Structures are given as structure tokens and as C-alpha cells.
Amino acid sequence: MAKKYVYLFREGNASMRDLLGGKGANLAEMTQIGLPVPPGFTITTEACNEYYAIGENVPDGTWDQVWPALADVEAATGKQFGDKTNPLLVSVRSGAKFSMPGMMDTVLNLGLNDDTVEALAANTQNERFAWDCYRRFIQMFGDVVLEVEHYLFEQILETAKEKQGVRFDSELSPESLKWMVGEYKKQILRSTGKPFPMDPKEQLQLAVLAVFRSWNNDRANVYRIINNIPHDIGTAVNVQSMVFGNMGSDSGTGVAFTRNPSTGEKALYGEYLMNAQGEDVVAGIRTPQPIATLAQENADIYKQFVENSQRLEAHYRDMQDIEFTIERGKLYMLQTRNGKRTASAAIRVAVDLYHEGVISKEEAIMRIEPQQLDHLLHRRMDGEAKLQVLAKGLPASPGAASGKIVFSAEEAERQGQLGEKVILVRTETTPDDIRGILAAQGILTSRGGMTSHAAVVSRHMGKPAVCGCDALKIDYTQKLVAIEGVEYPEGSLFSIDGATGRVIKGEVKMVDPELSEGFKEFLGWADEISRLKVMANADTPAEATNARNFGAVGIGLTRTEHMFMDPERIPIVQEMILAQTLQEREVALEKLLPMQEEDFYGILKAMEGFPVTIRLLDPPLHEFLPHSEELIVEITKLRMSKSDPKALSEKESLLRKVRALSELNPMLGHRGCRLGVSFPEITVMQARAIFQASARLVKEGRDIHPEVMIPLTMGKEEFVMMRKLVDETAQAVMSEQNVKIPYHVGTMIEVPRAALLADEIGKVADFFSFGTNDLTQMTMGLSRDDAQGKFLPIYLEKNLLKTDPFVVLDRDGVGKLIDMAVKLGRSSNSGLSLGICGEHGGEPNSVEFCHIVGLNYVSCSPFRVPIARLAAAQAAVNQG
Amino acid sequence: MAKKYVYLFREGNASMRDLLGGKGANLAEMTQIGLPVPPGFTITTEACNEYYAIGENVPDGTWDQVWPALADVEAATGKQFGDKTNPLLVSVRSGAKFSMPGMMDTVLNLGLNDDTVEALAANTQNERFAWDCYRRFIQMFGDVVLEVEHYLFEQILETAKEKQGVRFDSELSPESLKWMVGEYKKQILRSTGKPFPMDPKEQLQLAVLAVFRSWNNDRANVYRIINNIPHDIGTAVNVQSMVFGNMGSDSGTGVAFTRNPSTGEKALYGEYLMNAQGEDVVAGIRTPQPIATLAQENADIYKQFVENSQRLEAHYRDMQDIEFTIERGKLYMLQTRNGKRTASAAIRVAVDLYHEGVISKEEAIMRIEPQQLDHLLHRRMDGEAKLQVLAKGLPASPGAASGKIVFSAEEAERQGQLGEKVILVRTETTPDDIRGILAAQGILTSRGGMTSHAAVVSRHMGKPAVCGCDALKIDYTQKLVAIEGVEYPEGSLFSIDGATGRVIKGEVKMVDPELSEGFKEFLGWADEISRLKVMANADTPAEATNARNFGAVGIGLTRTEHMFMDPERIPIVQEMILAQTLQEREVALEKLLPMQEEDFYGILKAMEGFPVTIRLLDPPLHEFLPHSEELIVEITKLRMSKSDPKALSEKESLLRKVRALSELNPMLGHRGCRLGVSFPEITVMQARAIFQASARLVKEGRDIHPEVMIPLTMGKEEFVMMRKLVDETAQAVMSEQNVKIPYHVGTMIEVPRAALLADEIGKVADFFSFGTNDLTQMTMGLSRDDAQGKFLPIYLEKNLLKTDPFVVLDRDGVGKLIDMAVKLGRSSNSGLSLGICGEHGGEPNSVEFCHIVGLNYVSCSPFRVPIARLAAAQAAVNQG
């Protein structure tokens, strides 16, 4: 017997998301709790997966289950599919487990044909409505199911309007619409070689297949990669009887959130349009009315809707995003789902729901996607800045951005790859623009509301967006936008403020974000729950202070080379590198010592009370010298001009040194503690700077905890040698200064061999810090800089890697090695402190991994500290 | 109670090498079996190790044990230390577990002072002899123990000869010698601030300390690094009563081997000098007599010596290297040890001893150091070549070499680092020259015999050497050598033939070595005993044939990129790389296909009956393009001259492509199967070439076994994708050609992640080949090319790594990973074939490791196949 591939709405419930998809499960749940949902059924995700498994064929038995389900819908609605007097019309919609807004295809009004359109006209006594439905259906079906180019239908629409001499679609007469239907059908025959199918069952079969196919289209694949959604979970297909919001002025359609999705404020928030179909609202083509207006326009319907909304929020225990339709004065609930929201709204909703007694602290913690917080931690416009406001639109997604304006997604992507900051300016956006949105700093549209595609996607991605800014007159062909008569060509600098909707000329100064009280309270709960501590990577006192403000309990990584790169110091650093003898080198080091001492003094003081992990010099020395190619150009010029033999000789000498230091694979070259092995005097200088700074602070009564970290260790022997240099210097300074300094010496674990020998190294080290950037490079044999621009995207596209291993820690390979090192290290040193200081330290999935393998802390950039705190708490809730 | 640190010779035996060192254990053994050994005792290696452990202090109780042992020697010899009538004189010699010839220090005639010298003169009735002993003792003690510069004594010696007006040391009168003793003592007071010690016990204590210290001198450290001798085993000190070979014409000293150390021929082979001390023979200062001459000169002594020698060989069951002294007509045996021998001698001795019934096949196998075979497998002079022979010396170490002549070890080292081939030409060599000898292709000396330093060291290192070539007149200051009046400056091209002793002008054509019958028989025994199979790395049919001749049972690695590098093909390869479209690339690949097919046809045919493992294209594509720096110079010139805008534009375009392909860390970049993932058409072309060649051979009735190897795999998914391309191409060719081709598809394991995920990959691969070069680079985070010239020597010097991990496989780290991968791979695929194809495959210690972890085969360069076969057999004997 075939599997059950088809579920009536009344057969399912909210727990069946895997099988019915999010939309299907919620339609079933709403049906179960007695809300007015138009009857329908769901074809399962299993059917979709089976479809791909057997080479894109609908699995046996599917249609045998669809037709009885359809009969059930016919019985419930009293209508019949293809019936010439009372025809059933349905929508066919995709719906995966995870919401992928706009990524897959939808067909409405399915069931219309030359016969049923007449019945619809007769039953509604509205010929115009019926033919408008029909022409919309053919257009949508032609586009989505038959894959006829969209613009071919648009051309016919434009011709019809020209012929009739009208400006808006809504002004088209029934005759024009009928003419269009004829032209549409001709176009379909021309484009596909087959007539438009008149049999509603054939229409349904083709539409279901199109939804299955849409799972694998380019847009959907990209969306899944960006959002880390697996490719193999498939989509369900929802077939639902149609209700019409465009049956006249007593009909309408809308969407609403039970709380404000931008701020989290507890108030119904949404928009509706009378005499419109659902897609009109979200597509942003007409600017809709705020939901509150409905209370005046139709108090009864509004009351029903409010009750239903409250019931749904209470039922789901979370803020809901609800779609509804009013058909001739009757309210239907078409969809509910947990509403997408900005990060600040998400926090407010979670904190409020806790205080309302609806959810626990743990549940509150689990309600926020940590990655979303990133958004709150970005910069916003300086309140002091004087702004030349050009226009104002809807505050569609908070945050602020400056950049060059561009008018196409392709251009945004191109410029983005060149490192340019751009604002994507469009009349409206569509799912095809997804890569451009991703590449842009911010989005600005001239049409569409708070729930338009641009707004929803921007909020989700944490990009600032201003939508529905009518003042913009965009001319794509000339690549310019006119505002109040002034033209701005592509490349003009604009700023947008997604919190207020302002569009501003030029670049605007931004300021650092601060945490709201609610946010602090929320993160406090996270810390109560977490087992991992969160530290920060910081190289300056200012960064350290910043990190403290974001809740970091120490510094997991201070990169001393950033101090070497200071323009005032680089000549001294070069002097040290170019030294021919130990004596010369020591002279230069002597000059660097007081500078480094000041650096460490500042940072240790800023982190008083917490550990500060200072990594000794790590990069290869040639990074501090000029690039050989520049020198070659200069030398070739000097040789040809023969004008300055002295300069030539100096440049040649410098080039020789650069060449002597240059390496084929610098990542695996003369760097890390290998520098200290070759030039112990550099290590001694750095250690002296650390302990002299520490001694001063101890004398000032400060509670400081320097932790000296040896980079690129590959075995016990070299660690012992380096540790000896550090310990001896510490002893010397402590006895010179007559103070005691509490300190530790530990190592990075970033070379695979060090992980394999962690038991040996653990015996002599106080702590391990996994440098997951380099550990990933070496374990996977991937040079990050080379891979990310070149072949890594191909690996992700071809599904040879699940995620970019430099973003999400590779648990299978790198993770296995870390797990091994943790066990080996603890086996020989039970007091070993273990952490991670790669960029993975602020990435939620990787933080969860760190929790699972039992690290003591993660360390990440200051702005990611709140994300890591939340991720650590979620890991504790999820993993125990 | 203190440990027993001192053993009389009669208390020890040959099994106590660890404790007594090789020399001490053998002196004890000779004493035990009743040979005439001058009495003495040994201070243990434990005492030396303890000396270092407690900060260079002689451990408590040592002297308390030394004095009674000395008393025992006094009793045995009837002489007394410091006695004014019958004084005991002793030698003090170092002696570690492993022989380190000339690396540490020796003091002779210890016990002489102003009083005992008179007694010695009276007792021997030879004033000249006594004072010559005394001045030699002071000079040696001053140099070795008191660390006074050697040349200061030489100056006094030269002055004495001038004053007396003589040419040779032996002509110096007693008066001159007495004058010299006075001057030597003054020099010591000047240099050290203390008088020369007159107390023999103090002399002995200082000498023992000097031997302990000598364990850690620079020469000894370098020797241990080169010879893989651990640094922590310490040296013993042998204190032995002196006998004198220089007491007149009835005294003498010599060294002899029980068989010929160059050929292995069973005949006593050695040299002696009458009226000389032992050091005179080995130092090569006077050219000694062949041992056979002794039969005429003193038949009785010769007979005793032959008997003793035969007894020693039978006792030790191996060829012996024996030192003896004749004091006033009485024979003393001073030392015996297993004799160093050339590789061909070693094989002949082992094979002969087996056939003589002395040792088993297993013992024979264990008698040869595999590394030594390298020497037999190098090229020799072409018998057809016309040679301009300039001179003839002793055939001191077989093999032939050509190179530029240099006159100092430093210059040899410097030129060697620049990749120059040099012949080191010296009057004689000393242990200080060790680095120069290592860097040279061959050694040529004008003085010294077959047992001189140059000869012994060269034979051990497998370097050709011609010694004692009197015709050479070397002028170090002018850097030239004169032969029969013709002067040859430094840098002149010479060749030497160590098998005949010929010195030849210019470069000589060399021919490939062949295996002797004895060698083949010997290696046949090895194969009977081994568990590992030995394959070869070969890229051409000629190399494959060579490998077969050396006993390879297949090819473990064919590098297809070497075929791409062919000068005729490189333009087509570049065309492929620079292709803008898939179509363009396929046009170029179409041209490469028939060429690659011919390559594979030849190599598969040459290895008929055995597997041939073909690795798909591995290096990054930019390796096939010109270097960016060259292009930049050309472009800068073209820009400045403004002469040829077209050429400029072409070069600029090429530079852009070179830059686009250039990588920061190419080792971890776009190479290996990543090329196939990006450009599957390249993989398909290579697979097609392999299978089309195979199909032709199958049709010709050949028994061929192609094995397709995917490089740089990091996970299962990419391997599956690559395997699919190969399998599909194989299927296509087999059905086009209607043949069946037996083939396998496997992977390199060279990325640490692949080793960690070996269970996953094992499920879908037919074989693993550990690419230990890259696996070492990635696991240790070491770029081979960058490390070896720069910091790796420092790591070896500072003992942070035991051996160069690119020469000897790093068992601790890389080995642990391989072991893990072997277990994981076999756990998921019991039929998995496992091998190694890095350069470690021909290195004995690494081969042993491969045996231990249970690999199926090793693969190495053809010339190393015999070494690997022997090493594999030894591993089986040692490890079971």
C-alpha cells in the first residue's frame, strides 16, 4: 500500500511541520482549534522528497489520494471542481518546514477555464471580477507552471491598457480582460507549443509538479545556503479552496502581526487592502491601510479578527503573523505563523512574554535567533549629525547605512564584490533580487509597505531598509533617481535610516550601539543559564572597554602584531627585522619595549578583574616590509632611467631582504613561536613589556590577570623552550620590582599536530586556546584567502560542504580533532583551561559545539559578545 | 650507596654497550675471552648522563670508585701512577654506544710530568722517546682538556724545528723536545692563567671531565643529528694503561679489518706503521704499510694477530675492525668493533657469512643498514667514456662524482647550499670538515690511507673518495691545486672515481647502477621475510622499467602533471588554462587527450602484471603559467619605452590571469581534486586517456591494472563526485570499445581532515595512499620549502624536533594520524588497500612505521626500492 501522502487540514496539527511544512501544519492547527479556515489539504514533504529520489516522478499513489481529498473539499464548500454552475477554485502553494518567503511558487484561482469563468461571473454577478481572476490565473499559471516569460504577459497587459486608453489595471473593462485572456492563451500556445489546459484536474497536477520543481530553483537554493537550511527536507504543497478579497468593496485582504515586528510593542500591527487579492498586499504594488482603520470601516469584522489573533497568539505562545481575507463580509483566516521580527522586537516580545507569565526564561532565551542580534550591535546614525533629508519613506527595517546608490541587484552584487558599500534602490524588490540585497548595505524602495518583500527580507537579514518612499522617481534606463526634480545618478552617496524612514544625501557619521535595559536583562538570563564563559578578542584599551560593556568577562585574544603595525612604530619594527646582528636587533627591541609596555598597561587596566590573554608576535616578519612587486617596479624604473644609483642600490638591498624573508606558503612558514625559537630576544622583549606593565598595575593595587599565549605550537619541546623564556623574564621582573604577579602561560592549539599531542603539551601548559581559523586551514588543507574567493563557493553550490567552514566550525573534521585534544589535554592536566579564539567564537552553531565538547570559554570580537552569550545559553538549554 | 659508575675491563662484557659504550664493552669482552688487552676500566654512560642532569657536576661517588679501579690497573701492570721509578701511563678515551669516529676527544700518555718523564726515559733508555711522549701529552692535554688553541702549540713546534734546522718532527733532538715542553707549559700558563697540572690524579680528573664535556660539543651534536643518534645517551670514558708503538723499530701500531671493507672479500685488510702511535695511522699523516707486509717483517707477531683476528670475527660473528699495538715485540689488542664497510662489502660479507653457516638469513638481513644501499644505487662512470686521467690515489670509497673543486669545508657548504656540485679537495680532512663533506659530491685528499678520516667518513656516508693522492700540490692561500706543474684554480671541473682511485679532468658521463647477483640474492631473502610490498613512484615508461629492475611490484604514484610540463605540451596546457569558456577549454583538452593516452599506454605496458596508480592532475594551474615578477619587469619596461602598445596589452592581460590564479598559500589552494570539482572536464579527459589506453592494452592481451587516484581529498562528498566522473568515463569507454578493464578508484590521504574522516571515505574508496609529504606539511603546519632552508635547522639544533620530519616520518604527530586513519578506514572497509607514496616510502625508519601500522605497501623513487625492500624485511624481523 502506498504511503499516506495527502492530509486534509482537519487530519493534521502544528506538530507535523516536518511532514506538512510550516504553512500546512498551521493551517491544520487553525482548523483543529475551530478558526474559519477555507477547507483544503496538504501533499506531504515526503511526496516531494520521493519525487526527487525517483528521478523527478510523482510517487505512485499520490494522485489516488489527491482526488478523494479534493472531493472532501468539494463537499465542505458545496462547490465542484470544473463545475459549470458552482465551480470550486483553489490555491496551490508551497510550504516547507522552514519559512522561505517568496522563494517558491504559488498559483491562485486554479480551476478557472472558459466555462467556469462564466459561472464565476454569474454567481458573483460581477463579470469584470471573474475575467480579472481568469486573466490573473492564466498569467500566474503561465509564468509559474508553464515557465513562459513574465514580461510577455506584461506586454499584453500594457497593450490592453493602451488600447482602452486607461492607466491602471483596475480600470480595465471586461471586454479588455476577455481580449487579454485570448491573447494570453495565444501567447502560451506560441511559447510552449501546447494550448492552455482547460481541465482543472490537469491544471492541479501541473501546479503540484511546479511546486515540487520550485524546491530546486536557483532562488530557493541560494536562500537555503544563506540561511543554513538543509537541501533535502523538501516542500509540502497546500491546496486550499479560494476565498476572494477582490469581490468588491465588502471584500478585502490583509496581513497583521499580533505585536509590532519592529519594536515588539504589544499592539496589533498590520495592513489591509479592500477589494484586493492577498498578493497585492505583500507584493507592495498598492500601498495598504493600517489595520486600525478596519475598526472604523468594519467594526464587526475587526472585532472577530482581534479575537482570532489573540486566540492564535495564546495558542502558539508567541507573536503571530496572520493572513486573512474578507469575502463579501465574511472573515477567513488564511495563514498563521510565528512572526518574523527585528532583533529588538524579538527581545522585547520574549521579555514581555516572560513577564506576562506566558513563557519561562529558558523559553525566552530560545525565542531569539542569536545571529539576529548582530543587527542590534551595528552602528546607527549619530544623533548630533546635521542631515540633509531628501525624502521620507516607511521605516521598514531598522539600522542605518551609507553607500553609493545602484539600481539593479546585479550592480549591487558587482560593486559589493569590489568592496564598495552600496544602497540598492528599486521601485520594489522581488525574490530575484536576493543576491543584490545580500550585497548591499541597505535597501530603498519607492513602493510597497512594511510587509513588502523588501521590508520582510531586510528585517530578516538585519539590513536597514526604507520602503514605499513615493518621492523617488527611478529611471532604470538612465540609471538615476529624481527627488523633487533633482536628479541623482548611479554612484551618488546616500544614507538611509531604517528606524525613521529618512533618506539622506551624502554619508552620515555613525555611532556605536548600546544595549537597551531589556536587552541587558535578557542577556543576564542567558548568563544564568550558560556553562560557557564569553570573552572578547581586543587589541586596544578602547576595544577592551567596549567588550566589557557588551558583557565580556575577559580577553581571550590580544594580537600584539596589531600594535606593531602602528605607523609610528613600523620604522622601528623594520629596523628590528633588517638588523644584521643580535646587537642591532636588540637596539630596535629596546625602543619597542616601552611602547609595548604602554599597550599592555592600558589593556590590562581596562580589563581589571578579568583575565587578559596576550598572544606573542604571530605573523611572518615580511608582513611588516614593503611588497616585493612594488619594489620590482621601482627598481626596474631606476635601472632604466639610470638617474639615482644610490636609491637603486638601497632598493635592491631591501628587495634582497624581502626576498629572503618571502615564503611560498606564509601561513605555514616562519611565524608564531617559530619566530621566538629563531629570535628569543623578541619573545623576551614582549614578556618583559607584559610583566613590567603588570608590575606597575600591581603596585597601583589593581587586580590584573595576564595570560601569556604562545602561538603556532606544534609540540611540547618548543612550548617548553618558549615557556622558559617567559617564566624567566617574569621571575626577573618580579624580583626587580619586588611584586608578585599572578600569571599563566598557555598555548594556541591551531596546528593539527598540537591537537594530536595535546596530552603531552597539556602537561606543561596552563591553558589551551583553539585557534580555529588556522586549525581549519591546516586540517582541511584550505587557505582561507585563496578558497573563499575561488573554489569554496563551488563546494557550497555543489553541496560538497554543508557550510563555509570559516564561518561555521566544521564539526566532522576540525571538530573531531578539537574533541580529541580536549580529552587528551584534560587527561594529563585536569586543571587545564580550554577556550576558542577564532572567529567561530561568535558564531552560534560553533558556540554550541564548544559547549558540547566542554570548553570553558569562547572569545570573539566585542560586537559579537552578546550573540555568543545568547548562543551559549541556548546550547545549555538544548544540550543540557 | 652510590651507583656503580666504574667497571674494570674484566667486570664487563659485550652486552653492556648501553652502559659501557661500544668501545668499553668490546675491551671488556676481549679481556673476558683472554686476548692481550692492556688493563683498564670504564666510567659508565650513566655517570655522564648524571653529570648533565645535575648541571655539569661529576656525580657523588665517582672518584671513590675510580681510585680503587686505578689501583687494580697498577697491580695488573706492576706500575704506579706518578711513580718516579716505574710510572703508569694511561689513555683516556670517550666511547658512546654508537661509534662516532673522531667526534669526541682522546688524551694519550696521561700520567707524565717532570718526574715521571725522567723515569720513562730511564726505563726505556730512550730520552728522546720519553720527551717526545711528554710534549705530545702536554699538547694534547692543552688542546683537548684545557682548551688552548691548537695552533699555539704548532707555532712552538715550528719554532723548535727552525731553531734546530730540521724538517720533520722525528728529527727533533731531546734538547729541542725539552725546550718545547718548557715553552708549552709557559703557553698554558699564559692562556689559562694556571700552570700545567703536575699531579697525575688531577690530570686524570680533568681529562674525564673533558670527555664528558666533549659529548656536547658542536662536532658531536652535528654528527648525531646527521646520523640520527639520540642526544641523551651519553658517552662512557675508557681509562686504559698505555702501550707504546713508538718505542723504536720493534714497536708499531696498526688497524685491520677481518675482510675487505670496500669489497667484502674474505682477506685480512689493513695497515700499520712501525715506531708510531695509533693516532699517526688514522690521522693520515704518514702513509702506512699494508698489513701483509707484517708477515715478512715479523712473522710471529703477524701469526698471533691473524689468530686473534679470526677469533674475534668468530666470536662476534661479523667482520671486525681491530686496532693493535706492538710494544717492544709484544702484541696488544687495543680495540675491536664491527667494521664499517661499503654497502657492497656489507652485502658480500652478509651473504658469505650466511653461506659459511655463521648467520641466518634474518641475521644477514639485519646486518645491512638500509640507508647504506643508497650508495650502490647511485651512478658510476660510463665505461665507454674517454677520460683524461690527471692522477691516481687510493680507491678510498667507491662511487663516482663530478663537480667544481673547492678547498675548504666552508666553501663546499656554501656552494652546496646554492645547489652547486662540488668536490672537496684537502690535504687531509678532520672532524671539523664534517659539514663540508656532507655538502660535497666527493672527497679528494693528497695524504692519508684507506683508514684515514676522509676514507672512513666517506665510506660511511656513501660518498665517493680518493685519498692519499700524492700528485696533488694544494695551495690553500691561492686556492689552486697543481698536478704535474699544471695549476687548477678553485671552480675547475674534476671527476673522481672512488672505485679505482682515478682523478679525472672535466665532467664524466655516468651510467645507471645495476644490481649484482649477490645483491639480488640478498634482496630475495628480504622479500621472503617482508610483509610490506614495495612499489615505485614513476612518471615515464623508462622509470617504470627501472623500478621493475630494482624489484618494484607496481607503481604507487604516477604524477600526471609531469606529463603536462613537457615543453611541447605546455602551450596547449596554457591554452586550456586561459580558456574563457568551457568550449574553449574542451578544445584544448581534446588536443591533450591523445598525448595523455600515449603516456598512460606506455607506463601501463611497462608495468604489465602489476598495479599502476595514476594520480589525477594535482598542482595549482598557475604553475603552468609564467611567473608574475617576470611579467611585471617586462610590463614596466614596455610602459616606459612606449614602443609596443600591443605587446604591452597582451602582457597585461596575461598578468591579470596570472594574478587571478595566484594564491597566497598555493599548497593549500586551488589544486588536487579541487581542480576537478571546478573543471570536471579536466578529470573526464584524464580518465578517458587512462581508459582508452587501457582498452588498447586489454585488446592486445596485456594484463594491466590501472588504479585511479584522487588527490587532496578532504571529505567523502568530493570523493564521491570525482569517483562518479571516473566511473562514468570508464563505463563509457568500456562500452564504446567493448572490453572489460579491471580498475580501482582510490584517494590520497594527505589532508588531515581526510585522515580524521577515513571511515566515511573508506566506504566509497578502493584504496588509500598516504601522501606523507603534504600530510606532514599540513599536520605540522610546516611549508617544506620555507622551513627547510630557514627555521627547521634551528629546530634540529635546539633539539625541538628529533629529526627532519620531511626525511623521517614524524611518528608522534603525523604517525598518530595515519594510525588512526588506518584503523578507521579498515573499520568501514575491510578490503581497503593501504599504502604510502610520500618520499618517506624509501626511508627505513618510516618504512618500519608503515609496517607497524599495517599498511599493505610503500612506494618510493625507483632508486630507493632496494632500500625499502630491505627496510621492510628488517621491520618484519624487528617487529614481527
UniProtKB/TrEMBL annotation, chains A, B:
PEP-utilising enzyme mobile domain: residues covered: 420-501
Which ranges carry the Pyruvate phosphate dikinase AMP/ATP-binding domain? 18-53, 65-299, 303-347
Which co-factors does it depend on? Mg(2+)
Residues the record marks as active site: H453 (tele-phosphohistidine intermediate), C837 (proton donor)
Q: Where does substrate bind?
A: R559, R615, E750, G771, T772, N773, D774
Organism domain of life = Bacteria
**Per its record, how is this protein called by name?**
Pyruvate, phosphate dikinase
Reactions accelerated catalytically: pyruvate + phosphate + ATP = phosphoenolpyruvate + AMP + diphosphate + H(+)
The UniProt keywords, alphabetically, are:
ATP-binding, Kinase, Magnesium, Metal-binding, Nucleotide-binding, Pyruvate, Transferase
UniProt organism field: Desulfosporosinus acidiphilus (strain DSM 22704 / JCM 16185 / SJ4)
Positions with a binding annotation for Mg(2+)? E750, D774
Please state every residue range assigned to the domain named PEP-utilising enzyme C-terminal: 517-876
* Pfam families found in the cross-reference section: PEP-utilizers, PEP-utilizers_C, PPDK_N
Has UniProt tagged this entry with the keyword Kinase?
A: yes
- EC assignment: 2.7.9.1
PANTHER family xref list: PHOSPHOENOLPYRUVATE DIKINASE-RELATED (PTHR22931), PYRUVATE, PHOSPHATE DIKINASE 1, CHLOROPLASTIC (PTHR22931:SF9)
Q: Which residues form a coiled coil?
A: none
Its EC top class is transferase
Q: Which family does it belong to?
A: Belongs to the PEP-utilizing enzyme family.
Can you name one GO molecular function term for this protein? Answer: kinase activity
